[in-house]
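Let us work through a complete example step by step.
Step 1: write down the sequence.
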Amino acid sequence: MASEVRVREAAPRLSFVVQEGVPRSQSEEAYVQIRDRILSLDLPPGSVVNEGRLREELAIGRTPIREALQRLAHENLVRSVPHRGTFVTDDNITDLARITEVRVVLESHAARLAAERCVAADQNAIRELLGALKSGAATDQRQLMKLDQEIHLQIYRSARNSFLQSTLERYFNLSLRLWFLVLDHEVRLRDAVEEHVALLEAVLAGDGNRAEEIMRRHVTGFEREIRKVLVEG
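Step 2: predict the structure and record it as tokens.
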């Protein structure tokens, strides 16, 4: 039976990428904060989500917390069990395979669209990301994860399809939690992030075929690395 887990305040937390300058409603603020605690395993798989404790820690009311939890349930990050409460969903090999089936199709298509549709603002942002990749400034696992997240989100934006973007962000979040599960293991993270150099260069060159193929390899490679750790323990 899952035990109630308090947020581990002493643990280092990944600074998730957020949209700057956009005011949040209380419901959105609750969603972002609870989501990030789930993704970073501050609220680990199987743990109880205590609404009262969240209201106290986040200083947010009952209704916004419940609205956030309903949204997280839709995204398969929490589940409600009648007469028992709300729990963080578990992760397993089957989830990894199913998430990858979706991501490999949609992300590779988004990369193609990004190459075909990116505007000047996208191109400038992509050049900045290329600079960050080539500088080697990101050295530890969490910095590399954040950089990888920024790259994926920029590709989604550059595809210029809000429906595709919101779907991809949802599935990327599920993958991000899997990364945290294996964070302390030997995972080929730096190589995976550095694959984005070729991807971003293909997008800037307007080469949709190449961008699509690189993203396809990247997503399937991610699954292979995570599966290896989860199977071998």
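Step 3: interpret the result. Residues 1-13 have pLDDT under 50 and may be disordered.
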